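<goal> How does this chain fold?
<sample>
Here is the protein in question

***
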Amino acid sequence: QVQLVESGGGLVQAGGSLRLSCAASGSILSINDMAWYRQAPGKQRELVASSTGSTNYVDSVKGRFTISRDNAKNTVYLQMNSLKPEDTAVYYCKVVVLTTSFREYAYWGQGTQVTVSS
């Protein structure tokens, strides 16, 4: 069993920064792939950043957001700088973990709200 706990969301003024965390615990050998998605009200969920061998970002966040991980803590991060009101959304992490049963599974975090005021 694997659990994901997201944290770090909140209310910030435009131009500010936030760092989202996604901590995985349980029967984990390693985090193999990681990604962050977001969903704004009335919109479809959007892939924001992913690291699956190579790191990729949606054009709207390039140069402002950085995805990273701490393997020792089984935690993935999304550093968000120069935030804009259009970044307002619920942010979800998605990780693919190798479990102690030597199988890969994908898990989603519960989501964390990011609100950027103008």
Remarks:
- The radius of gyration is 14 Å.
- The chain has a mean pLDDT of 96.
- The longest strand covers residues 28-39.
